[in-house]
Amino acid sequence: MLYSELAAVYEQLEATSKRLEKRDIFARLLKKASESDLDHLLYLIQGRVFPRWDERKTGMSSQLLLKAIALSTGNSTEQITKIWRKVGDLGKVTEQLTKGKKQRTIFETKKLDVKKVFDNIRAMSELTGAGTVNKKVNLAAELLTSASPLEARYIVRTVLEELRIGVAEGVIRESIAVAYDVDVDDVEKAFSKIVDYAEVAKKAKKKELSKIGMGIGRPVEVMLAIKAETIEEAFEVLGKPAVFEYKLDGFRVQAHKVDGKISLFTRRMEDVTKQFPDVVSLIEKNVKGDSFIVDNEIVGYNQKTKRYLPFQKISQRIKRKHDIEKMAKDFPVEINVFDVLYHDGKSIEGKPLTERRDLLEKIIKPIKWKIVLTKKIITSSEEEATKFYKESLKAGNEGVMIKKIDGPYIPGRHVGGWIKFKPVMETLDLVIVGAEWGEGKRATWLSSFDLACQDKGKFLELGKVGTGIKEKGEGVTFKQLTKELKPNVIQTKGKHVLVKPNLVVEVAYEEIQKSPTYNSGLALRFPRILRIRYDRTPSGCDNIERVKNLFEKQRKI
User: Fold this and answer.
1) Is 184 exposed, middle or buried (0-12, 13-18, 19+ CB in 10 A)?
2) What CATH number has the domain spanning 48-159?
């Protein structure tokens, strides 16, 4: 398939905000695509060339890409940068410059196909050794030299991982269902097992979705909990008796074993196996089975007081690339195992919770402060449940998880599955989309942050936040946020910067108000950042519907 066909589809998708139109536009492309094209189309439509769980990156910064654009168009990097500051979108800048190229380049011009674009961008991540920078620049320049103006716009955005065409995963699922006349729920169920829309689309095309099995050795989608206001409400939803477990303030990790190898994946599908050799070792020694997938909460603890620590204390281990053994010693963790999805060749996520728990008790060798099963009770009594809940809080936990006693493991949030109950006001997981440089002693830090919720692939602002952040010490710091956001700056206007919506933070607030200032129509009053949610993706942050529901709920109180 020619890349020009995909670029035309990108343009159509970018031009409409209507979900059904987006679905039909992409479905038409899928219908005509060959099976070999699907491998490329289903990644590229998401603005990537690797699966969500693959840690490889193109490693192509905007500054490197400027050199490729200069090489392909004959303009200097200074000229390109000047236009970029005005336009704010390097893809559109390249499109504009491609329309009036100043000179012939060293690369042969030929029509691009989807595979060529995919292969060149993917190859950027695989280059090592001397001359890597020039090789990356040449790979990008080769594409841009052969690209039409419209193709150039989207090649640049894809390389920078900033496609911005408003295609959320829901649109992709529905497009596959429409293109191949299959049930969208079957598409979603298949995806939850292998987290790869390319594989799902190929099976859907052949009407073989039911043949997709659990993708052991690669992450699967996890089951999530909804919130309850009271224990009584939880019983009403789940029935009696129900399973109550400690709700720990750690981070979610699914551990896979296949062919003698242990792999660890976060809820965001990140591979953190290398960062947690201590966890790998404990699972190897204390979980029985030739192959398995177990679901866990990893919690840090104070070695002296033996009390659990807040997530923020151990979050730095997730992205650590160096001094890993020292970090493991300085910030020890306890593995709390709470579910099993697969064991010794059998997928068991459909079995009742009690059966899955019984299996865990047979295959886990518990060692306190190393690896344990989550503490639980099974009860029909609100009094007993409340006592257990208070014990959890006293132990330093967030609250309790409440689960349907015979419920299966179903990826995503589902009424009647899992419920979380904790004694805090409703918080929001929001994305930072902008910031401002500070003044005085904070001049080298970003110190005011624009918050946004999601709305079908777009982000709607809810206000600014500058509290809950510390200059130093425990908790979220200005230095930490600046370090996370600075590489994602996409536009600068005076002291204000726009950043790629990538970093999710948990935010508390006093109330939600109507506001004409922000494009969401709402604003948070007195927001404060509680923590960085490394375990959340931008697409997994709270949406405008939840914000509106909370707004309406507070008006009724």
Assistant:
1) middle
2) 1.10.3260.10
What phi and psi, each to the nearest 5 degrees, are found at residue 186?
-70, -35
Beta strands at 376-379 and 226-227: parallel, antiparallel or unpaired: unpaired
What does the alpha-carbon distance between residue 350 and residue 341 come to, in Å, rounded to a whole number?
8
CA angle 237, 243, 245 (to 5 degrees): 115
Look at residue 557 in the predicted model and tell me its pLDDT.
39
Write down the H helix ranges in 395-502. Answer: 478-485
Q: Give the angle 239-244-247 at the CA atoms, nearest 5°.
A: 130
Phi, psi of 501 (to 5 degrees): -70, 95
In this prediction the pTM is: 0.75
Residue spans per domain, the chain: 48-159, 223-421, 428-556
Distance CA 403, CA 225 (A): 9
Nearest to 24 by CA among 215, 141, 174: 174
Give the count of beta carbons closer than 10 Å to the beta carbon of residue 492. Answer: 12
223-421 matches 428-556 in fold: no
Q: Which residue has the tokens 């841009």?
A: 144
Q: What percent of the chain has pLDDT over 90?
A: 68
Query: Binning pLDDT at 50, 70 and 90, where does residue 326 land?
Result: confident
SS3 449: strand
Is residue 205 predicted with pLDDT exceeding 50? yes
Quick one: tokens of 182?
Answer: 């299959």
Q: Which two tokens stand for residue 47?
A: 């603005």
Top CATH class, 223-421: alpha beta
pLDDT at 468: 87
Residue 118 structure tokens: 């995919």
CATH 3.30.70.940 for domain 428-556, yes or no, is no
Tokens matching residue 512 = 């939600």
What pLDDT is attached to residue 369? 95
Helices and strands (DSSP H and E) totals, the chain: 20, 22
Can you tell me the mean pLDDT for 533-541? Answer: 89
Q: Residue 81: what are its φ and ψ, rounded to 5°? A: -60, -40
- Closest to 197 measured CA to CA, from 360, 39, 1, 27: 39
Mean pLDDT over residues 467-484, rounded?
Answer: 88
> How does pLDDT run across 61-118, given as a tens digit for each residue?
888 999 999 999 999 999 999 898 888 789 999 999 999 775 555 555 678 999 999 9
Residue pair 538/431 in contact (Cβ under 8 Å)? The answer is yes
Q: Which residue has the tokens 């995919």?
A: 118
User: What per-residue confidence (pLDDT) applies to 125?
Assistant: 86
Rg (CA), the chain: 25
Q: For position 142, what pLDDT does the model report?
A: 95
| Per-residue buried b or exposed e for 101-122, using 16+ beta carbons within 10 Å of the residue's own CB | eeeebeeeeeebbbebbbebbb
- Residues assigned a catalytic role: 247
Q: How confident is the model at residue 315, as a pLDDT?
A: 78
Q: What's the mean per-residue pLDDT of the chain? A: 91
